[in-house]
C-alpha cells in the first residue's frame, strides 16, 4: 500500500502503533517473560507443523498407492497446513514488541498470510467433500476425476485463497474509517471481520451437513452390501476412509470455530466480550490444527504410517556416513513392495472386476488407470 499524505478522514501516513492505540490494543515496547514464552512456543510448534506436513506431502508423492484424486487433495491440504506453519512462523517474528515497529505494508502481509492459509484449508476441505460426495454415492473408493482436473482444481483453490487474503489490502480496511476499526485486527474494518467469520462458519455448516448425509448413506448402503454381496472389504475401506476425512473436518471445525466466533463478536462491536483476553488462546488452537492431520493419518491409515516410517528410516540411514541410501532408492523399494502386494492380491482382484479399486483388509488399494 503506497504511503501518501493524509487526506481528510484518512490516515495513510500514521504508524501501526497509532491504530493499535486507537483500538485499545496496547502493546508493550519491551519484552516481558510472557512474550518470550509465547514466541518460543509459537516458533517450536510452527517448525513441527512445517516438518510434519512436508512428511505427508513426501509420503503421498513417493507412494504410488496414494496417486488418486482424494490423496492429491489431502496432499494439497497438507500444503495448506504447511503454508499455515510458515505464516505462523512469520507471525512469531512480527509479533509482541516487534509489532509496533512494523510498517503498514508489513502488517498487511502478516495478516494476508494468515487469512490465505485459512481460506486454502477451507477450500481444500470443501473440494474433498465434493470429491467424496461424487464417489461415495456410487460406492467407489476413488473418483474418476482426471489428473488435469485435479491440477486445475488445486490451482483454483490457491487462486481464491490468495485473492481472499488480499481483499483487505484492496480497500476493505479502516485507514479512512477510523471509527470502524476492529480491536483484534486494528487496521481491518469490523464489517470485514463479520463477513469473514460468517462466510467461514457457513461453509463449515455446509460441509458438516454434507458429511452427515454421506455418512447416513454409507451406513445404509453398507448394510445392504453385507447382505447381498461379498464386497465386505470394499465396504470397510470406503467407510474407514470416510471416517478419516470426517475426523480431519471435525478437528478443523473444532480448532477454528472459537477464533471465528471471536472475530465475529469483535466485528459486531461486543465491548463486554473481552476478545483480546482470549485472542492468543484461539490463535494457538488454530495453529495446532495444522499439526493434527499428520497425527490422524498415522493412526487411521496403516499404509500412510508405513510410508512415514520408511521416510524416517531413510533419513536416519542417510545420516550414517557408511550408508548410501537415498530417497529415490527408498521410493524404488516402496514400489517393489507395491508390486509384490499387487501380485499377491491378483486372485482376489479377479473376483471384483466391477470394483473401481482392489481393497486390502487394512484399507490398502492397488492402482487403477486414472
TrEMBL record:
User: Which residues lie within the region annotated Disordered?
Assistant: 342-370
Composition bias (Basic and acidic residues) maps to 347-370
Transport among keywords: no
Q: Name one GO cellular component term.
A: plasma membrane
> Which key words tag this protein in UniProt?
Cell membrane, Disulfide bond, Endosome, G-protein coupled receptor, Glycoprotein, Membrane, Receptor, Transducer, Transmembrane, Transmembrane helix
Q: Which CDD domains match?
A: 7tmA_LPAR2_Edg4 (cd15342)
Q: Which GO terms describe its molecular function?
A: lysophosphatidic acid receptor activity
Q: Where can this protein be found?
A: Cell membrane; Cell surface; Endosome
List the InterPro entries hit by this protein, alphabetically: GPCR_Rhodpsn (IPR000276), GPCR_Rhodpsn_7TM (IPR017452), LPA_rcpt (IPR004065), LPA_rcpt_EDG2 (IPR002277)
**What parts of the sequence cross the membrane?**
36-63, 70-93, 113-130, 150-173, 193-218, 238-265
Q: Which residues form the G-protein coupled receptors family 1 profile domain?
A: 52-297
Q: Which domain of life is it from?
A: Eukaryota
Which PROSITE patterns is this protein grouped with?
G_PROTEIN_RECEP_F1_1, G_PROTEIN_RECEP_F1_2
Cite the Pfam families for this sequence.
7tm_1 (PF00001)
**SUPFAM superfamilies named in the record:** Family A G protein-coupled receptor-like
* Topology of this chain in the membrane: Multi-pass membrane protein
Which family is annotated?
Belongs to the G-protein coupled receptor 1 family.
Q: What is this protein called?
A: Lysophosphatidic acid receptor 2
